[in-house]
Task: inverse folding
């Protein structure tokens, strides 16, 4: 079979991104994510489905810290799912460790493919962050202490926020409304995504790749960024992180790689939400040093 990308033929490239069959515990991990998120949402008094825009998917949830104190830092979380699956409702299983540390947890939705194209998803995430910044007092968080994290497709969208000219989004915003960020198992080079099965839903064209690939963009936010990828993930996912780390470090961004030992693509999120992990502690330390 002919080479499609970096020595991979079509089947081999697809295999690098076809993740669910790779680890036998994936169904169990997904079930835990959904069930535990539902339990968290039942027992923690959050404000759900707040509209940050007019679109049906333009909704976010806000969960206050366990100490009940408003006006503190917030972690804004962007879910993954190859830009075509999952939902904010499945993310709150990682919230308790942050809430117990005095940090509000905000999780948002965006319009999934094929109904939404990548440019639209990026725009919606930008507008969600702008909405949170403008309405920080009303939702009980400090607009000057907003942090961002995302996994997989959400890691891509997180990186895209760091390459954003926020004056073009809202003239009232500061140069960056985000104080720090963490991208987990992110996808930063959209060319292999365009060339593999994931693009069946996304519909990326060659001209869409440069402007939607953080690897080829400049980081416009002078903030710390944590990158982490699971020890057991595919070589392509590891390459995305290695190349973004090299590119953005060279451009002067304060980027730190934190290992995720024994993790694969589906377990790294729980690892991030584990108060005993080095990855979680690194995020907490970032948010406490502001």
Result:
């Amino acid at each position: 079979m002919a080479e499609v990308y970096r020595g991979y033929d079509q089947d081999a490239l697809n295999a690098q991104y076809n993740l669910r069959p790779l680890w036998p515990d994936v169904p169990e991990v997904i079930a835990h994510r959904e069930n535990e998120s539902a339990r968290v949402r039942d027992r923690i008094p959050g404000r759900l489905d707040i509209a940050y825009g007019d679109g049906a998917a333009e909704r976010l949830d806000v969960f206050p810290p366990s100490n009940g104190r408003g006006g503190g830092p917030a972690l804004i979380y962007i879910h993954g799912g190859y830009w075509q699956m999952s939902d904010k409702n499945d993310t709150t299983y990682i919230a308790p460790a942050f809430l117990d540390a005095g940090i509000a947890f905000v999780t948002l939705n965006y319009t999934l493919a094929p109904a939404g194209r990548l440019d639209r998803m990026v725009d919606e995430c930008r507008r969600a962050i702008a909405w949170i910044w403008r309405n920080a007092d009303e939702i009980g968080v400090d607009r000057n202490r907003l942090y961002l994290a995302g996994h997989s497709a959400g890691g891509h969208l997180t990186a895209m926020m760091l390459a954003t000219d926020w004056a073009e989004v809202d003239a009232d915003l500061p140069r960056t409304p985000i104080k720090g960020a963490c991208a987990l198992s992110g996808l930063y080079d959209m060319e292999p995504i365009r060339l593999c099965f994931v693009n069946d839903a996304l519909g990326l064209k060659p001209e869409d790749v440069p402007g939607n690939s953080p690897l080829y963009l400049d980081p416009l936010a002078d903030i710390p960024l944590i990158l982490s990828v699971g020890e057991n993930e595919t070589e392509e996912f590891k390459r995305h992180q290695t190349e973004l780390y090299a590119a953005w470090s060279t451009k002067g961004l304060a980027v730190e790689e934190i290992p995720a030992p024994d993790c694969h693509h589906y377990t790294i999120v729980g690892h991030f939400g584990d108060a005993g992990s080095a990855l979680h502690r690194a995020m907490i330390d970032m948010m406490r040093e502001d």
Q: What stands out?
A: The two ends are 52 Å apart (CA to CA). Residues 3-288 form a domain with the Rossmann fold fold (CATH 3.40.50.1820).
